[in-house]
Fold:
Amino acid sequence: MKLVLPERLTLANAQAVLEQLRTPMIAADAVEVLASPLKQFDTSALAVMLELRREAQSRGLSLQWVQTPEPLVSLAELYGVEALLGLSHRH
Structure:
């Protein structure tokens, strides 16, 4: 299953985005999340990503981030969660 992050992911819309992305995961075997559309974000994006990772793990699904913007990878590194999310500057 392919999911796509929105262009904007901040505290203002984090819960709605989480619910929008979480729902299709119910019927998935594996999840690939395209992150390249994300242009404007705050730390809420990391919270959403961590919750999606937790949800995938609880369902036994693999989850992969694709084309993650470098500023988001840097933010994950700053907060020390890049390993939890499976991110690095190589993506």
Notes: The mean pLDDT is 94.
